[in-house]
């Protein structure tokens, strides 16, 4: 998948999935954004249980405790009750962590700066959880629940959505303006086929398939490796990338994105950085909404950026304005794009 | 970024050259005073400082931001006329090294820049006017020899070498060898060795890419050459291990000569254990005897002769241990903090959140938390030690964990090679502090 941003709506819906649920994280109570995420992903919480608890501990809860409705031993049943509650809350937390991790993996391409290390760590976390759940025997239940009825995914989606909406009334003031979030409405979330439902079902399928790691992904494994090798050897930036987009988009709508595909997106396609291919690259994915969003978010204008160091230049005492040797190509690219857009639009 | 005399190697991370030694002092109690604060007025993604580095003499300090812009500061010579302005840093040069990373396809080139000064220019060309226009040869009736006349100092940066096309993934560190002939560049899966003179060829010395990317569970996070032994380097991984390699052993250093890893503490185990054990930075001590690593919650000092466990462990912000889930949610748990040694290897420093940074004195085992923020930044303001209140009653000047601002993180710091001068990058702002006692 190209590292260049996907369309605007994809991003906004993606952010909506990770909406602001401040309840679970009240104890942290501070403002922060995803490191590297320009659209300022705000705090995420999938369950109100989540944020207040310390990090999960293995073997902390006795497994398989059941509520005892014995008449005689009140004390024992109380403890079991507590044990059962704790165990189920642990399961809830673990499930939430799994959900969150899977979504992070799916949306890793929406980060401003692709980060292979982060994805590898998240994938390892997912594996850990799955291993534990397999040992528990609860993995079996999960896969059944999700792969069985088609209702569960959308139920889950709605549940998350409702949770988040109810929070909005008494939400703490947002310290970061999440541009895309405000633009996205509930109807879009539910109705949007391209991301929301697909990504959830992707998530679901990943949950299904991940339990049988290696088996379901065999098919795409080989093609993945081949594609990677091709990308490495392919020196043509333009056509090679278009092919990439097509096949990968195709893959994403066909089935779940594999871990290999996720990691594959971090590879930089080596290409001859000639001016032609740079222009081709510019045109290959021109989308006005993208351009607008990007300039908004990154503050990059086609006019030269007046950074602080420019001010410094005028302040520097004994030196005259230092010469900037290499002209910033990106700025001229933007200027060119602007110019071309003007011609096309006819303004 | 590496500074070597007047040469800067700019790429992905930050590595230090070895500097002089200094006698050990009880400097934790020293007072740190603000020398310079550089504010950025626009907080865009590309203004975020991504690296800070002193050169080997400490005369120059360079910073780079995500927009590819490099700023070099130079220290003023001490002047008897103005003793109170001793040794201040002023902007010396700025230049654009890399284009701003729109789509991050280009972040795989290392450039070597030369900064030169020109304070004279030739005048009196025969074939050109003073404006530069070519004169009509027919009008020239006499010859003269161009002379050099003084002009205002002009500082130029020219790229001398561009090393490109050897990395498929983003470069996370570069390190110049002590022989000053080679350097290495590191991305997530590979380490390449370059000769400073040869730009079109590099040697791959470490490759951990699996044949099948599905099997990828570990990546390289940082690497550095030994300060004195030019055949030795280390690299750290996302699983919390450090491998020391000897290039003489084989061409491809996939087999390490030493493997440093601390066994996991079972009582502290959680789903986040692996993530917080991922090493974000590794630095040799100036002496070359020790290694320092930074993971999410701690800084560890290792003895090169003991692989089984670190010599010393310092808690940077252990109060975050109970917040790991939230920090995972907002991705802060993936923040990569760097760490630095002071000139004498007696003190180590690293950053934290809320614009805090921490110093640990290895001899006295004392530590201090300081804050780099605009509120406390009058010129020559003295930094006041800060304290985070972990629980119970909060004292007057303490700040509670819940009030910490996680968007204000100090990832990059630098320490002058032999003086008590530090540079701290707080998102877009650069602070330079010096030890007040020395300033007089």
TrEMBL record, chain B:
Asked if the keyword Repeat belongs to this entry, the reply reads: yes
Return the SMART domains for the record.
WD40
Q: Which species expresses this protein natively? A: Labeo rohita
- Keyword annotations for this protein? Repeat, WD repeat
Q: Which protein family is named in the record? A: Belongs to the phosphatase 2A regulatory subunit B family.
Name by which UniProt lists this protein? Serine/threonine-protein phosphatase 2A 55 kDa regulatory subunit B
Q: Which Pfam families match?
A: WD40 (PF00400)
UniProt cross-references to InterPro entries, sorted A to Z: PP2A_PR55 (IPR000009), PP2A_PR55_CS (IPR018067), WD40/YVTN_repeat-like_dom_sf (IPR015943), WD40_repeat_dom_sf (IPR036322), WD40_rpt (IPR001680)
């Amino acid at each position: 998948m190209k590292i260049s941003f996907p369309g605007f709506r994809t991003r906004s819906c993606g952010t909506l999935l990770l909406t602001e649920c401040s309840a679970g994280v009240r104890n942290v109570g501070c403002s922060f954004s995803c490191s590297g995420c320009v659209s300022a992903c705000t705090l995420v919480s999938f369950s109100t249980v989540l944020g207040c608890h310390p990090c999960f501990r293995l073997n902390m809860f006795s497994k398989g405790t059941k509520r005892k409705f014995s008449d005689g031993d009140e004390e024992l049943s109380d403890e079991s009750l507590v044990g059962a509650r704790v165990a189920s809350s642990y399961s809830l937390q673990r499930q939430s962590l799994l959900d969150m991790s899977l979504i992070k993996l799916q949306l890793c391409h929406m980060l401003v700066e692709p980060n292979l290390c982060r994805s590898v760590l998240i994938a390892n976390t997912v594996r850990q959880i799955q291993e534990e759940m397999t040992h528990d025997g609860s993995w079996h239940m999960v896969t059944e629940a999700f792969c069985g009825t088609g209702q569960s995914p959308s139920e889950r989606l709605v549940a998350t959505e409702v949770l988040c909406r109810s929070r909005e009334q008494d939400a703490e003031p947002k310290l970061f303006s999440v541009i895309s979030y405000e633009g996205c409405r509930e109807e879009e979330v539910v109705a949007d086929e391209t991301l929301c439902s697909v990504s959830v079902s992707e998530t679901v399928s990943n949950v299904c398939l991940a339990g049988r790691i290696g088996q379901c992904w065999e098919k795409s494994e080989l093609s993945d490796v081949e594609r990677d090798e091709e990308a490495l050897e392919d020196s043509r930036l333009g056509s090679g990338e278009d092919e990439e987009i097509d096949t990968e988009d195709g893959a994403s709508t066909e089935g779940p994105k594999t871990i290999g595909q996720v990691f594959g997106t971090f590879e930089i396609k080596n290409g001859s950085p000639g001016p032609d291919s740079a222009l081709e690259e510019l045109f290959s994915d021109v989308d006005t909404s993208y351009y607008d969003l990007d300039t908004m978010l990154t503050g990059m204008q086609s006019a030269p950026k007046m950074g602080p160091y420019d001010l410094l230049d005028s302040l520097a005492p004994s030196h005259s304005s230092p010469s900037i040797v290499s002209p910033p190509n990106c700025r001229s690219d933007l200027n060119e794009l602007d110019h071309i857009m003007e011609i096309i639009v006819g303004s | 970024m590496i500074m070597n005399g007047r040469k800067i190697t700019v790429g992905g991370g930050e590595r230090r050259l070895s500097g002089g030694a200094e006698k050990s002092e009880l400097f934790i109690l020293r007072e740190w005073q603000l020398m310079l604060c550089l504010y950025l007025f626009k907080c865009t993604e590309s203004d975020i400082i991504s690296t800070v580095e002193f050169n080997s003499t400490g005369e120059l300090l360079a910073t780079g931001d995500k927009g590819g812009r490099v700023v070099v500061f130079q220290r003023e010579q001490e002047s008897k006329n103005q003793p109170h302005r001793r040794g201040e840093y002023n902007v010396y040069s700025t230049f654009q090294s890399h284009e701003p990373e729109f789509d991050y396809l280009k972040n795989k080139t290392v450039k070597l820049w030369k900064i030169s000064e020109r304070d004279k220019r030739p005048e009196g060309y025969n074939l050109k006017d003073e404006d530069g226009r070519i004169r009509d040869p027919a009008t020239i009736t006499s010859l003269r020899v161009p002379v050099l006349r003084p002009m205002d100092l002009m500082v130029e940066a020219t790229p001398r070498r561009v090393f490109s096309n050897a990395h498929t993934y983003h470069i996370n560190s570069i390190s110049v060898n002590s022989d000053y002939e080679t350097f290495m560049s590191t991305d997530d899966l590979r380490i390449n060795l370059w000769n400073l003179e040869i730009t079109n060829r590099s040697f791959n010395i470490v490759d951990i890419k699996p044949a099948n990317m599905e099997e990828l569970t570990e990546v390289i996070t940082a690497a550095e050459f030994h300060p004195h032994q030019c055949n030795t380097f280390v690299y750290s991984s996302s699983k919390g291990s450090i491998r020391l390699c000897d290039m003489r052993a084989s061409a491809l250093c996939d087999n390490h000569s030493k493997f440093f890893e601390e066994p996991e503490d079972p009582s502290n185990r959680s789903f986040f254990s692996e993530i917080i054990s991922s090493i974000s930075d590794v630095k040799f001590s100036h002496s070359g005897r020790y290694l320092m690593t930074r993971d999410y919650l701690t800084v560890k000092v290792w003895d090169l002769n003991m692989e089984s466990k670190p010599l010393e462990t310092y808690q940077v912000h252990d109060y975050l241990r109970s917040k790991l889930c939230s920090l995972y949610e907002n991705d802060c748990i993936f923040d990569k903090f760097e760490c630095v040694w002071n000139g004498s290897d007696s003190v180590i420093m690293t950053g934290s959140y809320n614009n805090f940074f921490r110093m640990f004195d290895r001899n006295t085992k004392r530590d201090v938390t300081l804050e780099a923020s605009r509120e406390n930044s009058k010129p020559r303001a003295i930094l006041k030690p800060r304290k985070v209140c972990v629980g119970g009653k909060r004292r007057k000047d303490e700040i509670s964990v819940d009030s910490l601002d996680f968007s204000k993180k100090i990832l990059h710091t630098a320490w002058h090679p032999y003086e008590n001068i530090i540079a701290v990058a707080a998102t877009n702002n650069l602070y330079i502090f010096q030890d007040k006692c020395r300033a007089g």
